[in-house]
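Input record (Table S2, row 388):
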Amino acid sequence: MSSRPREGRAEDQKHLTLAEKQKYIENYDFIHCDESSKYEKVAKIGQGTFGEVFKAREKKSNKKFVAMKKVLMDHEKEGFPITALREIRILQLLKHENVVNLIEICRTKATVANNHRSTFYLVFDFCEHDLAGLLSNINVKFSLGEIKKVMQQLLNGLYYIHSNKILHRDMKAANVLITKTGILKLADFGLARAFSVPKADSKNRYTNRVVTLWYRPPELLLGDRNYGPPVDMWGAGCIMAEMWTRSPIMQGGTEQQQLQYISQLCGSFTPEVWPGVEELDLYKTIELLKGHKRKVKERLRPYVKDEHGCDLLDKLLTLDPKKRIDADSALNHDFFWCDPMPCDLSKMLSQHLQSMFEYLAPRRTMKYQQQMNQIVKTQDNSLIDRVW
Ligand SMILES: Nc1ncnc2c1ncn2[C@@H]1O[C@H](COP(=O)(O)OP(=O)(O)OP(=O)(O)O)[C@@H](O)[C@H]1O
Ligand SMILES: [Mg+2]
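Output record (magnesium ion complex):
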């Protein structure tokens, strides 16, 4: 047997010089983690809190497009970020038509130039649009049947992830992707986590600093740490309303203001409508609006104009998470089972060949809202107050 160090064996590395070690790392073939150079970046399509997202083309096929989400490395610390690991583990578990598909994890070559620290990417099947981008484009018009199809697919995705004991915890229009053939995919599992059904004697203690403020449910705003799937159902309700209003319905600037907007729409938080609310940490410390009537249907009707739609919204935007409708019951709601039935989105989308993403779209500002309301006004031929 030869005593000469064989190439490619980790335990032999201590015998190598620094230059040899560097070369060894550069040429190391990570069999489960291809090099990102197999893809060619085409455009930047997202800038999230946790990193950039690019549209890229697979060089081999030259046709297949992917989305590459850069893993933000914490350079202060050694190793792969735990938050990204959690996102990957969850994405590997979830395989469903209405959940974004993670193809693989890629890395850049470790070189002297990057101090031998690779950049990692989560590589996904590419989706042409996100819902926030579509909603911010005035030329994109959804019929009632198309809105039903969007919501049916969104609830299907939520039903699937909740059945797999996963909470999304960041429901918002920008995290809902739609392919050019009209298939909706829940995306961005960066804040997702597994949950267990709490037992009577031991409560869960999850963080309540999750969900983008405008989509955050009242129980989280009041400090609940023993929450579950209803947090995502609230977000589904906010997104559903947005399908008609075209911009987020409750745009609070602070947590306090968000709670105010919620009680102005859904009524005051009282133990009568929400037994147990008085036990939440912030119920007593935060000044809550008193005496507000629930106005969900009344305020949304001018936009929605469909009674089943208003009723489902009312059930999704229910203050008490225990009474809030779950994904299964929502899918059985009459909204999805009466005319016009949910209908395919591909025909409508084929009129909009350019991809639409929140990052590339103009911000949905007051001016945009005024324009949208102008459209509602002229279509209806009567004046509708700016509700939001
Ligand atoms: N598979 C995909 N296909 C097309 N676009 C995508 C895909 N994945 C993500 N994007 C785009 O990139 C944006 C950001 O992606 P994602 O939400 O996963 O990242 P994030 O860093 O967690 O973002 P944020 O902090 O803004 O929520 C999305 O809103 C979407 O526009
Ligand atoms: Mg996101």
